[in-house]
Design a protein that fits this description.
Layout (H helix, E strand, L loop, with lengths): L1 H5 L8 H20 L3 H14 L8 H4 L1 H20 L18 H12 L3 H8 L6 H13 L3 H14 L6 H13 L3 H14 L3 H14 L11 H4 L32 H4 L16
Helix pairs in contact: 3-5, 5-6, 6-7, 7-8, 8-9, 8-10, 9-10, 10-11, 11-12
Length: about 280
């Protein structure tokens, strides 16, 4: 009844959605008091969550976990598996636009898998590798579990699987993980390449942070941060970051004029090397 109302009113101010949330809170409180049969409750919640267009009971595996217990959660997952197991496994490059609604069964399956650990979660996420972002999600989950090297392996697989469709988020996470693992030089190399390909103030700041941690920012000639140590880039100087945050906007004065080729960043190539990581002189 409430979901029917949601489809017939203007909820631009969010009031009806808030009522739906409150109704779920009341339902949970009632279940905590009445303690219905957990298996029957698990099935009812799962089927409602799968059919709801308004994400009703979508958080059930977590919010109802104490009421459901292991028997209820097991039945909940059995119902979800009826839908999720029918979803086609997607490989890099597969088109899933005509796959129907994968969101609800996948979201719920991931939530259930996460309760068992990161390996179970990775297995579910990897059921759909149709986009570079899915590789990022696997890597992020592994990194959150402290498995940095495994995460980096997935971050390498992503670009290799989509050579013509780069996703900068994979490289950003890889740089962050190398820095977290105590390898600022590797992080600097990645950030340098990213900055060369897509110059931006944020990229410049990230490169400065990694290169400083690696101790190469002020080393003339700097083998990894050379692109940002250039005194000039034609008529658009790239300015060293000021110690005052008020000068952050001056880090790149004319971003639109910044070239995307490494050799354009370095006025005088070191040892003739045009890459982002020329050898030390």
């Amino acid at each position: 009844m409430l979901e029917d109302a949601l489809g017939q009113v203007d909820d631009s101010n969010g009031e009806v959605g808030a009522l739906a949330g409150r109704a779920q809170e009341i339902h949970l409180a009632a279940c905590e008091q009445a303690r219905p049969d957990p298996v029957e409750l698990g099935e009812r919640l799962a089927r409602w969550a799968l059919r709801s267009d308004w994400e009703i009971f979508l958080d059930s595996p977590n919010s109802y976990s104490d009421v459901l217990g292991e028997p209820g959660l097991a039945r909940f997952e059995d119902v979800i598996d009826e839908r999720w197991s029918a979803l086609r496994r997607l490989e890099p490059g597969d088109d899933k636009r005509w796959e129907g609604n994968r969101f609800r069964p996948t979201y719920l399956k991931e939530m259930l898998a996460a309760r068992r650990g990161v390996d179970a979660l990775v297995e579910v996420i990897a059921h759909d590798l149709a986009s570079p972002y899915q590789f990022w999600r696997v890597a992020h989950a592994l990194a959150e579990a402290g498995r940095i090297e495994d995460a980096l392996g997935w971050l390498q697989r992503g670009p290799a699987s989509f050579p013509g469709n780069p996703d900068g988020r994979l490289a950003e996470l890889a740089a962050d993980l190398h820095a977290r693992a105590g390898r600022p030089e590797a992080a600097t190399d990645i950030a340098c390449q990213q900055f060369a390909e897509r110059p931006s103030l944020g990229g410049y700041q990230r490169l400065h942070g990694f290169a400083t941690a690696a101790g190469v920012w002020d080393s003339p000639p700097c083998p990894r941060a050379g692109v940002v140590l250039s005194a000039t880039l034609h008529t658009s100087p790239i300015v060293r970051p000021s110690r005052s945050s008020s000068h952050a906007a001056a880090l790149i004065r004319h971003p639109s004029e910044v070239r995307t080729n490494c050799r354009d960043f370095i006025p005088r190539p070191v040892n003739g090397a045009p890459s982002c990581t020329p050898a030390l002189a």
